[in-house]
Structures are given as structure tokens and as C-alpha cells.
Amino acid sequence: MQNLRSPKWIFLANTAPLLVYLLVCAGEYSVVHTLLPAASVGEWQAFGAVLALLGLGGAGYAGLQMVRRQPVSAWYSVAALLAYSLWLCLLTTQADELLPRSVPAWMVPTNPILMAWTFLMPTLAHAMLALVARFTPDDQPHQAAPNILFAVVVPMGWALVFGVLSWVSQLFRGSSGTQVYTGPSVWETVGTVIIVVALVVGTLSFFFFLTRALFITSRRRERSWADGGLVWKIVVTIVLPLIGLGVNNGLFFGQGFREANGIFGNFSSPWFYILTIVNGVLLCLPDSGRPGLRLAQLLGRSALFGFTFYFFLVFLPFLPLAIPAIILIGAGFLLLAPLLLFVVHVRQLSDDVAALRAVYSPRLVTAALVAGLAVLPLYFTGSFWHRRQVLHEALAYVYTPDYTQPPHVDAEALAATLAQVRQNKDRNQELFFGSQQPYLSTYFNWLVLDNLMLSEHKINELELIFKGAVPDPNYLARSRFNSSPSTQNFTGADLDGFNDPAPNPDAPQLRSAAVRSTYDARQQAWVSWVDLEVANRNSSFQNREYSTAIRLPEGCWVGDYTLTIGNRQEHGILAEKKAATWVFAQILSENSSRDPGLLAYRGPNEIAVRVYPVSGAEARHTSIQFLHKEPCTLTVDGRTLALGDSAAAPLTASISVPGSGVAYVSAAAKQRLPLVQRRPYYHFLLDASASRPGSAKAFRERVASQVAQPMPNGAAPRFSLVNAATIPVAAGTDWADALGKIPGTGGFYLSGAIRRVLFDTQEHPSATYPVLVAVTDDFNNAVLDADFEDFQIAYPESDVFYVLGPDGHLVPHSLRHETRKPLQLGQVALPAPGAPVPVRAWPDAAHPRAYLPATPTAAVVIVGRPTVPTANAPASTRWLAGLLLRGYGQWQSFHPEITDRERVPFIQASFRAGILTPFTSFLALENNAQKAALYRKQEQTLAATASLDTMENENLAPSATATPIDSGALLLLAAGLLLAGWHLRRMRAIAGTRQL
């Protein structure tokens, strides 16, 4: 341990964590500084300056000592212990001044006070160990007993000091009589100073004497039971850690190994107990006199040092709690077990290295030590990286698939990964860490989830697709009527917070709507502003939210958004959609009067408008700018609004940019396209999941009965076997025989099958089209999207698919909306399956490249891979930029495999053009702090995989994302309060009662 006096450790234990802490705090300060009062700004600057000076002083001293080739002196260790302890105490007592209650907690995800207790603990630990090493040289004899005695006396001294001060406080209070409280008295101020000094000096003294006693005891070479050396080691390395694990996991309270929640984290796995025993045995084994065996011992002990260091790191911020815990509950010594084990382990490794260097080359010994130390970090990194690959392969297959490729997902590994993702999401507030594992869960979330999250809907959906079952038995019942879209691409459907809510009669209503339209001759398009005024139905309502949906016609883009906040008109920031939705949700969770407004796509042709808050009798005003090529109409809350001049001459030609891969076909131009009729064919999607029947006989009879009823001008039917994958049955092959041979695995992933068939139809236009029929015994078990509206160009004849159930009847369902809900034949006029339906052939009937529905509306046609306007090659007008973005988004619906690669350039193109896309949102914010938080969150979401989430899809309640510090927020805060303000607040509370 004398090596700990090397100056290089100052850079590792002090300079590095201090630099990280200052950088993180600077990031938090840059977001919230505009919300802070002048006094708080001064506090931030003062504490930051003092800490920076301390860090620079330590680094400078370390550099000087390295030049001098001298170890760290005792004076530095004492100065560092006192200075940083005092700084921590003052910081904790000033917590309310640094972060007033007016600053929303979501803007500061990693609280600076809590971070300080974690990042500065390595500095205090190193200074303490260096001080112990300085006063315990190896060439002099030392006795452990006096140090143990002094360590025991410290808690007794604490109890005595607190008892005396409490008695004196009661004495002064009793003699003061009834008086008006005018603030702390002289006695209270003196008592506070005494308490702080006792806390700091007592805590540091306790750990100095305890660590020195451990250091002296660990130097003993005796290994016999007679002198107690081996017994002591067994207690420290095996008994105490096992008892600590048992207490944490509730093993002594009948909960057992499978209890997922613990006081300090989830250490319920039997592997923690096994590694504890193996680690203790390796440390207790006598040192071998044979160099080869001693080298093997070094490898084993160094390989498990990561295990010891992990628990030392976990409990390091909580060590100040040991003394009050010993006084109050008598079990505080268990908090010291990781420290005791750490000292023993470090000493043992030092002895091994010193002994082996006398026999082997120092480089060989160092290499063996480093190799052993790297075992556990590399194991966890490799394990987490493998889980990242497994999870991202599954996410890519389901949410950003290549429709030409089969899945390559390890279902068992995916199940284990999803279980860990779900476990890390559980932040049980009744405990300090709940089911998470400190630092490991954070590392997992960073490496596997890019510091975002996976919504519960997606976890359940992945489990259902690849395993055929979900742990939550109510999931299928819920999703049966409220299924969320399973695709996350540019055109559709990431509906975070935009699911249709239940009608609320108390919600604000639209009071008035007005349109301002002008024709822009330069871009030959209309620019229209729709002004909305909303207000509460009842003036007594407070902090209500107004929301509505607006369906857009083809060729109409959103170019701007404003919200009146106070006396100013605030333009919305065009931001990444997930980041904007997350910030909007966080502001709503404050339940305050802060003003956000959000405008985003909720489907490929529909936008959602949300305004908050609408309070009292106040009317809120918001406006949306639309760019459209032709006059059109919009419906807003039942009101029809005409945009542009309907008397203007109609556009009779199609519009396209040469080489762009996209064209706009006006309503008039579409009507001149030739009408054709394609031949239909049944495409049966056969349930081959784990829940299907064991025999294909029932399916054969059902399908044969349906095929026996030929469609007019129908083509030969096709078949696909559907579980987690979609397996086409080759023409001429007995599909029933193929179904009987395939093992029933996974779930009935009907969404994937439908999308793959429609993808093939769109990619290879032909004179035939599919009539989709799902064949299953239980349609409720199918994994099915809420709609396939983003694929609507692939089914121009009809948006109906069918379910062939056990009764042998075809039940119609809509591909466009509410896919699980059967269509009512009495309410909707449905043609028979395969009935002749004419469509428009584009550009002509001889060489069609696309088929369009024979409706009187305009259409956007993709004729290849559309281009995206870039900074070097921008579109000539904003309307054309919107057309290119629309075409590319529509093409990307069928090629989601490029999402992660091209999502950021697509979003940047949206920013440059100022045109809303389904991957961006307009967000109007009240202040600069909210805007800074938005940009910070946007950087995080743009750097992550597109399929990950920022919050749960089922509701708008914000979801916590694990951060390096917040995992133990309550306990870290308790540590700070105990060190610096515990008794102070108690005395103030007593004094506060002395009022008239």
C-alpha cells in the first residue's frame, strides 16, 4: 500500500473525477442558469471556483512531487481530507440555494449535490489510505490494538457529544421562557459549529484508525488458527460479505435468493454468493512457496479484485453513514465490510507482486496483474456488448426491418436481455436501489440502450414475437383494443403521447378558427396560416390541455408554428420528435403554468396540435403555417376551413424534379390517367406459431373450402407460414405438408407478414394484387399493428384484409385503421373478396410504374429512391423541399433498414427546409432553459438507435432514464445530510417552536 503514496494516484483519484464532475456540472448549469436568481448564480460560481482551485492545487502538487521523485506527504493528505470534507459539508447545507424549488427537477437529471458525494469520495479515500500508509511504514513494528480502541471510542464520543449538546439545548430552551423567535442564538451557532467539527473530525478519525488497524493486521504473515490471523481473515473476506449480502437481499427474512429488490441494489443472484466464497478462499489460502503456484494465486486474486473493488465503489459514498448506523441500529459495521475486504485484497496483491518480482521479470508480473484485473471488466463489457447486438438485431427486425432478409435473432439471449432491461427500468422508490445494480445497471443502459429506454409495449411485443408469450398476462387483453404501431420510420408512427385519448367533456374547446392565405408566385404555391383560439368550457378550470388532430391532403406541408405566450408570439423550434415530445411531457408533469405548445405528425397524413396550459377564462392563441400547391380544405374540430382560392385554375400537370424519384400528381392530372383492373389472388398467411394446433388438417379444410369459391378473374393462391419469420411456400409445394414439418415457435407475427407481402407488391408492380387472408385459431394472439396507413400506396384497390377463423368464415378488417376491430358489413359497403376494382396506372397502362386509387384526390408517387435536399443541393423552393421530404419518407416506409444510417441527414434536411416531417416536431417553449434542455435531449436522441424510446408509449408520463448518479439518490442525500446538516436542522426545528 506504500504505492498509494505515489503522486500519480492524485491524477487518477482526484484530478480525473474532479474534471468529470466539473464538466457535468457545467452542462447542468448551462441549462438552468437563466432560471437561477443572482444569489444562486453566485453560489454556483463560488463553489465551482473553489473546487477548481482545489483540483488545480492537487494536480500541481502531484506534478511537483513527480518531478522531485518524492511521495505524497502527510500534510497533503490532511489538507485534502479537511478541505474536501468542509467543501462537501458547505455544499450540502446550501443545496436549496444552489437549486431553488423553482428549477424543475427534470432539467437537472444528475443533481450536483448527489454527484459531489460520489465523485469526491475517491479523493477522500485516496487521501485517507495515503495518510495511513505514511504513518505505517513497513520497516517498523506496529500494534493494531490501540488503533482498534481509538476506532471504537469515536462512535462513543459521537454519542456523548450529541447527548451533551441535546441536554444543554434543552437546558437553554427551558430557561429562556416564552419569547419571539428571532433566529439562531449564540448557543445554537456554537452548537452548529461543534456539530460540524465533530462530524468531520470524528468521521475522518474513525476511518483513519480503522483503516490503519486493518493495514497493520493484514501485514501479519501468520496463517494459523492459534494466533487468530486466519480466523480474522475468514471473518473479513467471507463471513461479513455473506452476511451483508443476506441482509441486503432479505435472506434472513424469508425472501431467499430470488428476491429482486435489495436495500443497496439487486444482488440476489447466487453468483454473488459464489464469487464471495471463491474470492474469500483465494485470499485466505496460504501463500505458496512455489513460484508457479504463487503466480497462479496472483492471477486468481487479481481476477476477482474487480469483484472486491465493485462493492468498495458501491459502498464508498455511504461510508459516512457507518458511524450513525453503528450508534442507532448496531449493524453499521456491515457498511464497513467492503472497506475491510478492499484493504485486505490490496495488501495481498501487493505482497504477491513483491514476492514474484524477486523471481520473475517485473514485466511478466505486471502483465499477469493487469491481465487478471481486466478479467471482470472485459467479461461484463463483452456480455453487455453481446446483449446489445442481440437486442438491436431484434429491434431492427421488428421496427426497422429489411423486408428481403429473414430474422437472425437468438430468442433465448433476447429473453434474458429483455428481462434485464425490464429489471433496470424498475426504480422502486421504497428502496434505495430497488432491482437495479449500482453502476452495472448504468453501464448496461449506456452500452446497450444508449442511455435511452425501451417502452414496456415494445418489450412485450418482442417477447410475444420471438417467444410466443409475455410475462404480463394482461398485455394481450390490453393490446387487443389499443395496439400501438410497431413501425418506427420516417412516415409513421412513433406515437409517443399521441394515442387517441378518451373523450373528455371538460377539455378546452376550439372557440374560433381563421385562415389567412396568400399565393407565393416565386414558388408557385399557396402559403396559408390557420389561426386557432382555444379556451376552457368552464372558466374555473385550471391548467388544462387542448389537443386536436388535423388530417392533411396530399401536397400540403407544415412550414411553421406559433404560440402566443404572454404578450409575445413564440415560434416553435423544429426539433427531433422524441426529444420534443419528452420535453413537452416533462413540462406537463410539473403541473404548473409554464407554456409549451407541440405540433407533430401522428400518422403519415395527420398532425396533432397540443397547447398547455389553458387556465381560467384566458383564451390561448396558436397558429399553423401550411404550404400547399392547390387550394384545399382542412377539418379542425368539426370546422371546415378553406385554404387558398378555390376559384383558381386547377393544376393539370404532374410536378417532379428531374432525377428526384418523386412526383406530385394533381387531382386533375390523376383523373386523366388510364383505368385498369388487376387480377386478384388469395395470399394466405398461415399461423405457424407456438400457439397453433399440432396438426395442419384443420387449416387444410378451411383453406380448401375458401379456395373452392373462385374469385372473378382470380390468379392462383399463394401461401406463407408465419411465426416470428415469414416463410413463403414455393409454388407447387404442398403448403399443409410444409406447415406440418415446421416447428411451432415464437408468436404469430402477422404485422411482419402483411408488411412483407405489401412490400413485395409495391416493389414489383404487376397485373395482379394480393387479397390477404390470415388463417389462425385465435386472432387475438396475433401481433398486429394498429394500422398500415404508411403502406397505403401498396393497396390501391382495397384496404381490407380477412381473417379465416375456426368457423370457416372470412371476417373483414381494415388495413387503414383499427386493424383488430372487425368491419361491420351493415355499416360499410364492402365488395366481395377480389371483386373488380379499377385503379389508375401511372404514367400509362402500357408501362405502369405505380398504381393509384381511383379517387378524386391528388397523390405523391415514388418512382425510385427519392433524393433529399442537402446543404450543397437545396430545393429551389420550400414547397419542392417538402415534396422531396415527403417522397423520401414514403419510400423509406418500405425500406426502414436505412433508418439508423440516414435518419440524422433526413432530420437535418427537415431543419434546413423548415418543413415538418414525421420524425420532427415544432415545439414552442416559454424560456431559454427549456430550450437548452431540448437541445441537450436532442443530441442524446440523435446519437441513439431510432427504435429506442424516451418514454413509455402508453401514456405521456415521463420515464426516468438511468443516470450514473441518481440510482442512489435517496441514500446519497442521506449521507450528505448526516455529515453536514443532520443535527443542525434538528436544532433549528426545536428553536422554531419558540414563537408566540
UniProtKB/TrEMBL annotation:
Protein name: VIT domain-containing protein
Keyword Acyltransferase: no
Statement: the UniProt record of this protein carries the keyword S-adenosyl-L-methionine: no
Keywords recorded for this protein, A-Z: Membrane, Transmembrane, Transmembrane helix
Species lineage: Bacteria, Pseudomonadati, Bacteroidota, Cytophagia, Cytophagales
Region (Disordered): 485-507
TM segment ranges: 9-32, 44-62, 74-93, 113-136, 148-169, 189-210, 230-247, 267-286, 298-319, 325-344, 364-385, 967-984
Residue ranges annotated for the VIT domain, each copy included: 498-628
InterPro entries assigned to the protein according to its UniProt record, in alphabetical order: MSEP-CTERM, PID_CTERM, VIT
PROSITE patterns: VIT
